[in-house]
Structures are given as structure tokens and as C-alpha cells.
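Re: [help] complex structure
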Amino acid sequence: MRYDIRLRIGYDYAPPVRDARHVLRLTPRTDRGQTLEAARLVIHPTPSEHRVDHCFFGNRTEHVLLRAPHASLSVTLMARVGVARGLPALDTAPPLSEVVEAAALSRGADGTAPAFLSAAGRLVAPQADAGAFIRQSLSAGSLGPGLLAAAQAIRDEFAYEPGFSDLTTSVTTVLREKRGVCQDFAHLMIAGLRHLGIPAAYVSGFLRTEPPDGAPRVEGADAMHAWVEAWLGPDLGWVGFDPTNGCVVEDGHIAVAIGRDYADVAPVAGVVTTMGGQAAFHAVDVVPQMERPAAWQAALDPR
Amino acid sequence: MVGPDGALRPHYRFLADRIAQMDNWELQARLGRADQYLTQAGVHYRDAAEGDAGDAAERGWPLGFLPLVLDAAEWQRMERGLKARAQYLEALLADLYGARSVVRDGVLPASVLAGDPEFLLPLANQAVSGQPLLTFLAIDLRPRADGGWDVVADRTQAPSGAGFALENRVATGKAFPDILKTAQVQRLAGFFHAFRDELHDVADRLGGGGIAVLTPGPMSETAYEHAYLARYLGLQLVEGGDLTVAADKVFLRSVGGDRVLKVLWRRMDADYADPLELLPTSQIGTPGLCRAIRAGSVRIVNALGAGILESPALAPYEDALAEHLTGGPLAMRMRRGTGPTASAPFLTGGTLTPRALVLRVYLARCAGAWRVMPGGFARIAADGGSDAGSIRDGGRSVDVWVLSDGIRDEVTLLSGTRPFRRQRPGPLPARAADNLFWLGRQVERLDQATRLVRLYRDRADGTLPGPVDAALRQGLARFGVMPRAPRAGLLALAETARAIAFRIRDRFSPDGWRVLSEVPRLLEPGGKDDITVANNVLGRLAGFTGLVAENMYRLDGWRFLQCGRKIERGIAASQTLADLIAPALGDDALDAMLELADSRLTYRRRYSVELWRPAVLDMAVLDPLNPRSLATVAQELEAVMLALPGDEADSPPQAPLARAARLSVRLRTATAPEVTEAFLRRIGQDLADISDLLAATCFTPSAGPDAALKSGRVE
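Output below.
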């Protein structure tokens, strides 16, 4: 499936800020069954410096510097991505104890290694109460279906409620209040998986905006979405689970960045020199290629 | 040292015997000289538990005696082991931030690395370029009863104490200069010279550029040492906010332009160094610093992420790691032994008692090899039963004497072959200039307010006509001072001045700082009457002014301070004069004008006792011979500003200078009849505009001392 994506993120500052430095993680990944066919990032005002790098986890990062005073920042991404991931063979996943042992003994030492997604990040640490919650869904057999059941349990038992939580909301609070948004559910699942010894990654990305005919509307499709990847042993590798929608990640999810938690994948991180506050806006549209509006044609097709 | 049997080791005999020869009077006199040096030099540390910026958090430096003595043979053994350990640490760090072979080959579990927040992901591959990650480190040692030493901890993040070790040596030298000399104790200077030369060589190899000590700020526990070492080595002292990154290079924001920096000796924890890629809530870092590091355009001493070597989780793997990286075990290793330890003789109440100790030694990478400082920083336990804890817990610090064997003279004359060149003054960081300017304004504001208070309280016996009284009270209100209870308002001004000075404390002599920080104490309620208090405050401020005039280098920093003082004096004086100028206010107002301009005596000498209105106005406003007239203030302001650096090198800031020149001419050419209230208020406004223009031109970004300028996060 090929998708056309348009993402707009912006900030208004009062009073204007200056010497703003940002790291953007917006461009979809080129692994995990994804191919990036075209991508354009437009930033207003024009940055003084704009350099491309890759972080430890292999995410494409845009480093942007805006020296001059400005009252607002807007970032627009237009991209075309092909996704051919297929359904993972969940039943072939080893039992929990084997996965845990393989993870502990693994000798990988780069961003793809299970070890670097098994410990605490800046926001989320392994947690016993989250681990207990996940464990309820696991059975003695293959781990794969058990993790799917855990994702479904989160979808069933937790209410999707924007505005309840913010960046500082803890996993414990989410467990107690039984509500949150995709970021909270992903953090919850990660805290639990890691406590059980399963390496887990936080994934930011996009969902197709409108469901196929007859399918129910998915949540999180008008903003960037968050889900989880669990490491299911050296053969199966990383498999995606969406705890907000209670499903396995297939060709309807487009991955942008992976990391230990939200702090590693924040779409727009920045430091500005300011005396005031800021207000943010964002909008995302993800459209399968055959359905895209004619207006996008010019922006994406090669001249 | 003292062995477990209580006997003093042979190489201590010379010192112990000499001390035994002294009577109590001589001993106390000697120790007193050391104490006096430390007090006068202002050596202190800050107790982090006390959260405020006040003096209450400062503790005098607890130097103890006897110094720790190590004989030459013992030291040579130690040196060999220490250098080998440093090489091991270097190899380990390079591997962890490079190939990570110790993980791939199964020597170190990946989880030890992944679980340590000191393994900084944005710099995970910084060793690949080959540039050294460790340049200055310390190792904490504990003595064994059998004469060997065990490693207690490696200090690779930002080890402190080297500066205090220098001060210990100077102070101990004040107490025992004769013994120090005859014992042929190795000197410390050579080590620091070699380290400084290394920093310069590194900067040259990176294409040339500045070297700075990067401090978390004056609130840090070891802030004194940061400033001391920066001065001792001739380096700039900067904070994260002084730096900016452009084109992946690090620049110091200084007046007259940004200067590139190539080497940073950092004294803060790594995670705080870059709020964009590391700890987001850090207010003391520099966004973009990680980029510059990855680009290889700056060397951080030590590299961000070097703190991982301090992790206790590495200790169980040390032998295997040493085997893997260096081919064999380490001579100096960590040992969890519970064997008997040796102790140090501590002089208390005239007798020697054994106390536990920890010795911190320092190593620097100079010209490709590790070099050990012949000495160190020793911590002695607070009492007989405890382990040597930290200074904060009541421990003491003693000097460390490494005896020379006469064969190898450690004062390497090689470092003396550099020809002497008077160092050009380093660039003035924009924030320091900003603070100095506002300090000048604030000190002058306090001075003007205090004078007005003194005048008002002197006249407040009900004999003043209502309108004059009202005019003076208007002036006081402008300063935020209440006429009947002025001390609270003056105290607020004094504390603001002190707070600004605190931010740039490293630019003053201890005398200057002491004088200024005494002023708030004078203004506490109770005790003397307001006039006496006012006189005391003015006396202190005169002392501060005098010290600044005499002792501060005639550099840009001094000039910004002077600009601030002149501008504030002009604004305050013109406002107060404007309040008092209405003819209806009569002679009492004229008298008050003269008093505030400190010109009563001069007036009488020149004109007679009678108050003649044009003469008073001329003297207070226009007379170029009166140091307190507005004309003089404007002229001196212009002169100082002419020497300031502006946007371009070698030329002063144009916009504010032009305004100052015009003002000066206006006042030089005006006549007494032109001096009206409107005239005076316009002068005040002119000076306020000049202040704004100066700030906009020279300080970026500045909004005065009260602005809540901060780094905001964008999410």
C-alpha cells in the first residue's frame, strides 16, 4: 500500500522568540517494510541552518536553527511511502522465558540491539504494576498471541481521552485512571514488557486517516500516532503492536521514529530563547495514493 | 603514615620530630598563618544543602595538618600503577563509545551499558574519530596496612579538588615554609603547566581557537575552584549560556563579536550540557553542543559521557575488561577488601591521632602520555572512628607531600622554554558585560537613594515647607523607598546589587566582593539611627568604588561597569533636580540640590553663603569642574563609551555613542537660564535611551536584571 502524507505542525509565540534550535523527527523510516518514495519538508521561516543526521536508533533527524526573531514556526511534511510489511507470524514466537534469556544474552551493541530498548528511557522505566497488567494476558504458550491479547486488553479496559494526560503523566496514573491517549498506552505497555524482560520500543508514526469501507474508524488518525514494538527473539525480531487500537501493526501503520519512549522520538523538539509562552497546532492527513486530493499532486510528483 | 600497630612510618619522622620541637605558641602561630591566608584569599566551598545564594551556604576551607607524606620510592610505584590504570580507562571508554568490542565479545553484558544513563546515546560513536575522550582524571585511593593502595573510585566525569590541592599547598607553605623547603617536596606547578600546554596544543591541532572552563555557575559546590583554576591557567570562565553553536562550531558570545572556542574544560555533569539532545530541563547547557562534538570541531575535557566509567556496575567486570583491553590484570585495582587499612597522623589539640583517609590523585594526558600530579587532595575523617567521608560531612583536607629523591627534579624547566608574551585579555562574554553594566547601575542607584534618605531624614524635623518635603518624598518613592521606614527599600536595592555581583563574582577581588556583600547586613532593622546607617552604607559603597577604580583591570568589563554608574547617576540626579527646581520651592530646595550634588562646601567657597539660584543650577547641572554635575557625568560617559567595543572590531557602538556625544555637547554649551524642569527630565530620558541602545548593541539578548529570560522547551 502506498500512502501520501501531509503533516503540519506549528507554534505561535508571544512575544516573538529568537535563536531557536530544533530537532525534527518527521520523515518516515525506510526499514520495517517501508520505502520512502518522496519527501519534502518545508519550514517557515526559512532556517538559518538545516542539516540532516541520524540518531542512535537510526531515525532521520533534521537539525534546524532559526536565528532571527519570529512569532511563529510552521513545519510541513509531504511524503509518499510504500508499506509492505505483511502480517507477522505471531504463533512462531518462542515462549516468554526463551525471549527473555535471548535478550539478556544478546551481544548487539548498536541501535537495533534489544539491550538498548530493555532499560529505562528519560520518561519510562520498567515497572512492576505495568508488568503485572501485561502478564495477565500471557499464557504458557507462544508469546506472540499473548502480546496481542495484552494490546487488546488495553484497548478494551482503557478509555481514549485526549486532554487528560500530558508529558508528565506517569504510567502508574494511567493504570489507576484507566484513561489516556496513544502515548500513554504505549508507555504503559513498554513499562510492562520491559519489566518482564521483553525488549520494547516506542514507535511514532502515522495511521491512514479514513478507514477502508466498512471498517471502524481508528483513533489517533488526525494526529501522529504511537505504538509499540516488542522483540520476539532473534528469528522473529521486532513485531509491532498497537495498544490503542488493540491490533498487530500491518500495512495501515507508517513508522516515523523509534526509541525508548516519547522523549527519543518527539516530532519537534526545541530550545528557544523566550520571555513568554507558546501555543501549538498540528494536523495530519494520511491518504492511500489512489484517493489523494488533486491539490497534492503537484507537491509530490517529480517536476 | 600510621600503621595498624600505631607506629609512625619512617619517612614521617622528619616532620613529626620538627613539630615536636615547637612549643605550643609557635605551632599555633604557624597554623594561624595558614588560616589567615585561606580567609584573605576567600577560599571556600558551597554547601549544596543550603539552597540560597547567600553567604550562609559558604563554608571556609577546612585545612588540617599534618600533610600526608609519601616517599619517592613509594610514589614511583604508585605512578606506574596509576598510569597503567589511566591507559586502561582510556581504552575502555574508547571501546564503549566506539566498537563496543567488550560487549560484542561477551566480556561486558550489554545491559550494563544500556542501563546506565551516563551512556549518552547522541554521542554513542564519538570515539570512532580517534580523538581522546579522557584528558584529565582523578583516582581515589585508600592505603592498605601492607603499604599498597586500593582504588576506591575512578573520577572521570569532572573531578574536582585540583585547585583546592594548590591552595592547600600554598596555605601549608605559609605554616611550614622552612620544612617544606628542606624536605624537597615536589612542586605542583609543572603538572599544571604541562596540562595547560596540552590544552593549547589541542586547540592548535583543531585549527586554533579559544579555551574555556565551562562552569555550571556560581551556585555550584566547587564554584570557587572553577574560577581559581581558570585564572591560574589563564583560561576564560564561561557558563553554558555564554556559548552558542553555529555551523557546528562553538562560539563564545562576547562583546565585539563571537569568538570560536576549540577546547572546553567542563566542570558540570554531562547530561546538563545540551538541553536539545540531552537533559531537556537543563538551564545551564548549550543547545547544539552535541552537534559540534560529533562534527569534531571542539574537544571537551573530558568527553560528555565519560562518567560511565564511574559506574559501580563496572567493578565486577574490571579484571575481565583489563584482560581484554590491556592483556593483563591491573596493578592498581578496585578491591572490596576488608583488610586492615593504614591511617594518617592528624594534628588535633597539639597531639597526633590516627585518622582514616582517602587520597585523590590527578592525572593529565600531556603530549600523548599520562602524567601524574606529584601530590593530590587528601580527605581526613572527621573523627577517629569513621571512614574519610566528604568535606561536607565534617572531614578535613590536608596537603600531600611527595618527597623528591633528588634524582628526578619535577620542576620541569622544559615548560619554562616558552618565551614570555603578555597575554592579551580574553574576550568579555556578553552576559558578563551585561551583568557588569547592571551592577554599575544598581550600585549607583543604591548610592543615590541612600543620599536622598540621609538628606530627608536629616530634615525630617517638621521644619521643611510642605512642597519641598513632598518633592523629596517623590524622589524616594521613585527608588521604592518609604520615607518613614527607608531601610526596607534600601535593603531591596542592596540585595539586588549583591545578587548581580554574585553572578560575576569571579571578576572581582575578594575585597571588592566582601565590601559589597556587607552592605545588606548594615541595613538590617534595629540598632542605629537612619542617618548613621546611611553614612555607613555610603562609606562602604565608596570603598567598593575605590576598589573597583584601583584594582579592576582597565578592560571592557570595567568600562561597562562605569557606563552603568554614570548613566544611573545622571538619571537619578536629573530626576531629583527636576523635582526640586520649581522656583516656588525656594531656598530650601536649592540647598537640598547642593547637598545631593555634594557641592555645598564648594559653593560656599566660590559664591558665599547666600543661595543664588543661577549659581546653584550651574554648579549642580553644568559645571564641568564639579565631579557630580550632570555635565561631568555626560562627558565621562562619552569618554568611557569611546573605548567600548561595538559591532565591528576596533570601533565603539555607534548608536549609543552618538547620543552620548550629543548629550555631552548640550550640557557643555547650555547656560543656567536654560535649565528648567523640562530640560532636566529630557536629560533623564536621553540617558535611559542611551542605556537601551547600549544594551541592544552590546548584550544579546538582554532585558535588564529582572527579566525572566529562560530557555523554553518546544514540544
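The longest strand of chain B covers residues 257-266.
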